[in-house]
Amino acid sequence: MSGNFRVRLLNRRSESRCCHAPPYVYREAQGGFVKQRCSVCGKNETTVSRDEAGSIKPALCCVSCERELDLVMAGNNYAYQCPRKCAPPIDMAIIADALDSLCHETNENVPT
Asked: How many beta carbons lie within 10 A of that of residue 11, not counting itself?
């Protein structure tokens, strides 16, 4: 798998104060406490409110510039690519396989 993307949790109901971009969620401390950081410049933002938590969705972001990847056509296949073209497009099938593997591994580690 290509290492030129990462999955981020973007808050699409909010804008960062600095760049007016959707902030992403990150773990602030042990125990699952999360805060938000600007998806453009990385500046710390606020904590995630209970209201906002329901609107936070996974997004694919470029490892180099942190921009959200765009859906493009690469030959006959759907793919994701950085709007700045930091790296070649990544086939959607590769992303689907990677996320499926991650979910499968995560579910195996959940106590029953």
From this structure: 22
Domain map (residue ranges) of the chain: 5-108
Q: What are the tens digits of pLDDT across the range 80-98?
A: 999 999 989 999 998 888 8
Beta bridge partners of 59: 8
Structure tokens at 112: 């029953």
pLDDT in tens, 52-67: 887 788 888 888 888 8
Q: Does residue 1 register a pLDDT over 50?
A: no
For 10, half-sphere exposure in the C-beta direction (CA atoms, 13 angstrom radius) is 17
CB half-sphere exposure, 18, CA atoms < 13 A: 12
CA distance 99 to 30: 24
- Average pLDDT score over the chain: 83
Residue pair 74/17 in contact by the 8 Å Cβ criterion: no
- What is the DSSP annotation of 40-62? TT--EEEEPPHHHHTTEEEEEEE
Give how far the C-alpha of residue 81 lies from the chain's centroid of Cα atoms, to the nearest Å.
Answer: 13
